[in-house]
Specification:
Layout (H helix, E strand, L loop, with lengths): L33 E2 L9 E5 L5 E5 L2 E2 L15 H5 L2 E2 L19 H8 L8 E6 L2 E10 L6 E2 L3 E3 L2 E2 L2 H28 L4 E7 L5 E7 L7 H11 L2 E7 L1 H8 L10 H4 L9 H6 L6 H4 L8 H14 L8 E4 L2 E9 L4 E6 L4 E5 L3 E4 L2 E4 L2 H6 L1
Parallel strand pairs: 3-9, 12-13
Antiparallel strand pairs: 1-8, 2-3, 2-7, 4-5, 6-7, 6-10, 11-12, 14-15, 15-16, 16-17, 18-19
Helix pairs in contact: 3-4
Length: 372
């Protein structure tokens, strides 16, 4: 039987096992319990740590008194509204919603629409798991689903001009710190690759991210760095997928890497996902710059998995037109099935022609299909 794939000597799953997603160092940290969406504060925002490209959920802590937009008087608020604590932003960060509010609406309704919304791409100060830092607010999360408590942080304030100047100043210091650390690593001949360096906003600490194939004893390196910087040093080992998330880059599709520009959640990816999507098991085609399987395989796997449930599997046999046929290829995306008959015929049929009955797959006759 002919093989119509573009890789006649396709490697086995075992041979491609090194491409599968292993547990990265950063993902091994324990997760907090899942929070019920009904218990989450509102509005809930998504923020991004600029140095690591990680994202978190954030909120402004509740205040005892509602802060009204300019022009809305206290007489416009009912007793129930005044008594209810609300999520509020500083007045300077509230989005102007006048263009979206009906001019005939009452001032109280206008206040509800404009209250507590923060501008997208605003820079805010939050306590991350690394320390207090400036992060980018990406927008409101309408349906967060079930998330861990460690992913929700309180927003302390909108970043001030002084905060932003300090961030800009730190970038120059980070470039020098990166080069200094790199030279120290070379001098110590350590088997590690330095990824990035980062100064926190208000803490005397420098973060260094590095990747390595195994655990590295960097205690002497830390002593060298402390002697140079005279502040606290923190080295964090990350996996190759985390490295791609931090540094970014361009994928085989020509767009920015998904882990850097779409989502930072590094879900496991397996060879089975590539097989179910009928992709060539060529490591150059199904792996990204990080050397692991493409993240998009996991994003699209749900569609293919559901679509294949409505189609016969490759290798399935059945009688059609008085001849025994075998399925040799299933294209879930186009909804077509290619099958080969014992008489040498090759047929490409739409998925609508197939149905499952009496424990096996069958093909509708053309006349029967026209009637339906």
């Amino acid at each position: 039987m002919s093989d119509y794939r573009d890789d006649h000597n396709a490697p086995t799953e075992e041979e491609l096992g090194h491409l599968e997603d292993s547990r990265d160092i950063e993902s091994e940290r324990p997760r907090a319990r899942v929070t019920d969406p009904r218990e989450l504060p509102r509005p809930l925002y998504r923020i991004k740590a600029m140095h690591s490209n990680e994202t978190f959920y954030a909120y402004f802590p509740k205040t005892a008194t509602a802060q009204m937009p300019e022009g809305a008087g206290a007489e416009d608020v009912t007793e129930d509204e005044a008594a209810e604590p609300m999520e509020l932003a500083p007045a300077a960060a509230v989005v102007e919603e006048a263009a979206y509010i009906d001019l005939d609406a009452d001032d109280a309704e206008a206040a509800k629409a404009a209250r507590g919304l923060i501008e997208k791409r605003a820079m805010v100060v939050v306590p991350t798991r690394y320390g207090r830092d400036v992060c980018e607010l990406q927008g409101i999360v309408e349906e967060p689903g079930q998330i861990g408590k460690d992913e929700i942080v309180p927003i302390e304030r909108i970043a001030t001009e002084d905060d932003l100047r300090k961030v800009e100043s730190n970038r120059e210091r980070e470039a020098k710190a990166f080069e200094t650390c790199r030279l120290k690593i070379v001098a110590r001949n350590l088997p590690m690759k330095l990824v990035s360096a980062h100064y926190l906003l208000e803490e005397p600490k420098v973060l260094f991210y590095f990747s390595a194939e195994s655990r590295v004893d960097f205690r002497e390196l830390v002593k060298d760095l402390v002697a140079v910087f005279k502040i606290r040093i923190e080295l964090r080992q990350i996996g190759v997928r985390d490295e791609a998330r931090v540094t970014g880059g361009c994928g085989v599709c020509g767009r920015v890497l998904c882990c850097h520009g779409v989502t930072d959640k590094l879900v496991p990816v397996s060879i089975k996902m590539a097989k179910d999507q009928n992709l060539s098991l060529n490591s150059m085609k199904i792996s990204g710059p990080c050397g692991r399987l493409l993240c998009c395989l996991a994003y699209e796997y749900g569609f293919y998995h559901e679509a294949r449930r409505e189609l016969p599997a490759e290798g399935a046999r059945f009688q059609y037109d008085g001849v025994l046929f075998r399925v040799i290829e299933v294209n879930a995306l186009s909804g077509s099935v290619k099958m080969a008959g014992e008489d040498g015929r090759l047929l490409d049929m739409p998925s609508a022609r197939f149905f499952y009955s009496d424990g096996r797959w069958q093909v509708k006759e053309e006349e029967e299909e026209k009637e339906n």
